[in-house]
């Protein structure tokens, strides 16, 4: 059983790092569709992780959140985003306020900050699941950062989904998930906000011919 | 016996300089005699340093004048004699080189003055690294600065040389101010100016003053070493000086500042807190990368070499910084390894930078231009200089099996050993500094491919280059000696490391040489740390075997292999130098990649003939913005000038007012001193 | 003693003999994916034989550097072939050097190639040379940090030690995953495959490696092409035997070597096929987007180091 736990934790560590890698890919790519694929891949890895945690810890309500997360974040939300991208007919490039290299360096710095700040918490004797807490914090920070610096609304939605992923993973790895009601509530919250954002994107595009959220400032006057 | 060698060297240098002044009218003879005396004096000091190093002893000289009121104390311990060795070897080679190079100046300028100042320059550097008293040190330091200033403005008709000299002397004086304050703080706690007393008081200095001295020393010696961002004078002063002086300045004068760093941080201010070594490491890494980035954009060959010196000083400081960090955590074996790496790179850099400046001097001697964009095709005209420059370029790019590779390998091993440090932040920064070092090494290779390729290869781009002739034999012989030294130091690292180990034993108290070098059954010298093994001699042996095998197999397979010579395809036109790539074009990808750093500026202006449809001429200016000058130096100098303008009212020019100043000061003194 | 002579010779024979086959395999698979029949699997061998039989045409502007470069490049790659564990994890000549020496031996070949590209005075050479130096400089920090991660995990930079330690490594270390990904991107940049450089093009403005070697012909071109295919095979070997060393022979018994060779062929074939898929799915990126790609690789290697320091 000990061997089991060791292998289990190492697999979860590996999955955590793969999730971090796909979040970096979110920053590191210049095409919107690739961003959506990166988020979908990360959500898929997250569902795998939660499934594994549910299996090995035996807490059954995590299975429910795994299922919901699978349906929502891996199938529905990316599918919906692809539909919107095609319908709205935008330029398929990611536009951001700061240039590419600087955003890569800043996201690397954010990962460093996440590791550094959780270092004192993570110093237990065993080396199992050491990566989960820093990685979840890093994913949240990188998601927030991409929301700040990206111009297109679609990429901001992706940043929001990333943040939610990060928080879910943090809750999962430290305390085996939040109470079921809270998690289901958060999920449906996300689903509704994505759908509303999608509809708004379509409407904004029709009215203003652009979905650059910077232009929304012109509504101020 | 050994003491006599020291005195003999000093006397020979001094007499060399005086002899230079004596021969009025027989300029060539005077020039030769002074340079030969300099060479002989350097030989004596080589012998001196070797004797002290391998004896491991410490020798003191005290010249007491005026009944011990003024003490001139000199000390030769292994650290000083290592630097004396570097200074003397480079001094010897540069003197032999100058025998040929100064023919450029004979009968056109005052070579007596050149000989005079040159000998005094070498003497002053010798005295700087052996001084054992803070007063003596500052006197000789100022002397060295002054003499090198005169050497920098030797060709004073050129206004850019005068400006270079001015910037140099201002910055050198700023460094002297910082050093003087540092020495005064040490003097307050030691009670005397002698370095021997400084060594024992480290425990009594309060923490805050130690940190203040740390910063004063970094700025003071850092200006002289040319670390970033205090490097402004280096790319101006080294190209302005004549080539035989530039090689000494860039080869050893900036290393005297490293001597200062080691003396202060390893002897006077021990034990150091780890964050000092950390700052030195990061300062070294940033100098390395920024030095080479600016070297990439330069097209004057000597400015390129000067910026590359900034890079290499950065690499040396990375080794020294790592040594300080390890020492502060009491990991003495690793500290010795890092110190060996830093000091090995120091002497490697002295050798190959001297070689490169010498070859640049050869180019200048035969073509009278330093601009790479006007050269080209020199490999067919300067047939001996070209392979020498190639050896220098390969060494500085850390290509195996030459000496640059050995020292960079040792620094990488020290960085990998940073794993043993306790703090995670320090470990990560050390690894990132390793990545920066790898980037700097690759950029240095590009820079020297550009320097060698555009100057020596392809077609000549100007009349000077077309008519270049090979330089006098003596210049080639001296550079050839340095090139073979590069190869030797790369193939036989164990000997060099045993020499440096003597310094380590004295400085750090550890002797790790047996852990590092072993001789195996092939008698190949290996470098064996607890991580891995490296044997450059056997690598070269196997390389030569493989080359012979390849060549043999190919010749057997097809004995009749011939080469047909034809002109290069240039789309049907006869090849012209305009078709070849230029230096600006070669490094353009870097200008674009690092455009945030360089802020390149492009200006195209056209002048039109009377009807506006006909263009008479188009001017294109493309340059990079010197952001450190613009945002760091210019504001500071503007601020200083502002203040001095405001204080100007004190100088009224009237004698009565000045007498009044003296009178008022006298009254104050009488009242307050009682 | 006998094994320490036979094994290096065997390694050189395998690397020298197998590398044109790997290139032929990649070309053939790519053609198949494009619904063509493609050239024969052994076409690179026929090319090399043809080139070795021809005379060389040398530009009159070129100097001895141009004529020496093919030999320097070829011999430096052969020296690397002596150091890399191919069939057995114990390389008898590993006292010569370690992975850092290997990286700088690649730099030696590249130095002379870039010089020879400037030597002939043609514009294509200069263009290829400057771009190649820019790309390889950007790839160096990522490669160095990934190598650091691997050597810190193992405790040595010596390739035999790395291979034998990772052979017995029982834990899944996430930092090795990140280092692996970073190294894959670096290998694509160093060997000049799509999406960094197109090895099939001969248009002046789009070639990088091909631009550097444009002026070579005859025996010189044969040596340089062979060296570049050996470079691809050597980099793949380093990748395979460092991160996936299972099955490599630890002692020098004959059946062990045969099994090791068969597994080596399978692994190299797998990676070659992965290169084919990568090349067929992506387009070549613009020249000034390549630093972005290499920047991503650098970030991944920094993450590898960070996650290594957290685990230990």
What does this structure look like?
- The complex is a heterotrimer of chains A (221), B (674) and C (312).
- Chain A is mostly helical and 221 residues long.
- Chain A has helices at 2-28, 32-57, 61-88, 100-118, 132-149, 153-175, 180-208.
- Chain A has one domain (2-220).
- Helix content of chain A is 77%, strand content 0%.
- In chain B, strands 3-4-5 form a three-stranded antiparallel sheet.
- The radius of gyration of chain B is 27 Å and the shape is globular.
- The termini of chain B are far apart.
- Chain C is mainly α and 312 residues long.
- Chain C has one domain (2-311).
- Chain C has helices at 3-33, 43-53, 64-83, 99-119, 123-154, 159-167, 174-191, 209-212, 218-243, 254-281, 290-311; one strand spanning 56-59.
- In chain C, helix 1 (3-33) crosses helix 3 (64-83) and helix 1 (3-33) runs parallel beside helix 10.
- Chains in contact: A-B, A-C, B-C.
- At the A-C interface, helix 1 and helix 4 of A face helix 7 and helix 11 of C.
- Strand 6 (563-566) of chain B pairs parallel with strand 1 (56-59) of chain C, so a sheet runs across the interface.
Question: How many β strands of chain C by DSSP?
Answer: 1
Q: Summarize the biggest pleated sheet of chain B.
A: 3 strands, antiparallel
Number of domains of chain C: 1
Strand content of chain B: 5-15%
How many whole angstroms does the radius of gyration of chain C measure?
19 Å
Strand order of the largest sheet of chain B: 3-4-5
Radius of gyration of chain B: 27 Å
Mean pLDDT of chain C: 88
Give a brief outline of the structure.
Chain A is mainly α and 221 residues long.
Can you lay out the helices and strands and say which pair or pack?
The complex is a heterotrimer of chains A (221), B (674) and C (312).
Chain A: H1 2-28, H2 32-57, H3 61-88, H4 100-118, H5 132-149, H6 153-175, H7 180-208
Helix pairs in contact in A: 1-2, 1-5, 2-3, 2-6, 3-7, 4-5, 5-6, 6-7
Chain B: H1 2-22, H2 27-55, E1 59-65, E2 70-76, H3 78-101, H4 111-130, H5 134-152, H6 159-190, H7 195-198, H8 207-225, H9 234-240, H10 243-268, H11 274-296, H12 301-328, H13 332-367, H14 378-381, H15 385-396, H16 403-416, H17 424-456, H18 463-466, H19 473-491, H20 493-507, H21 513-516, E3 517-519, E4 525-528, E5 533-534, H22 536-557, E6 563-566, H23 583-586, H24 588-593, H25 595-598, E7 600-608, E8 615-624, H26 627-646, H27 655-673
Helix pairs in contact in B: 1-2, 1-4, 2-3, 2-4, 3-4, 3-10, 3-13, 3-19, 4-5, 4-10, 5-6, 6-8, 6-9, 8-10, 9-10, 9-12, 10-12, 10-13, 11-12, 11-17, 12-13, 12-16, 12-17, 13-15, 13-16, 13-19, 13-20, 15-17, 15-19, 16-19
Chain C: H1 3-33, H2 43-53, E1 56-59, H3 64-83, H4 99-119, H5 123-154, H6 159-167, H7 174-191, H8 209-212, H9 218-243, H10 254-281, H11 290-311
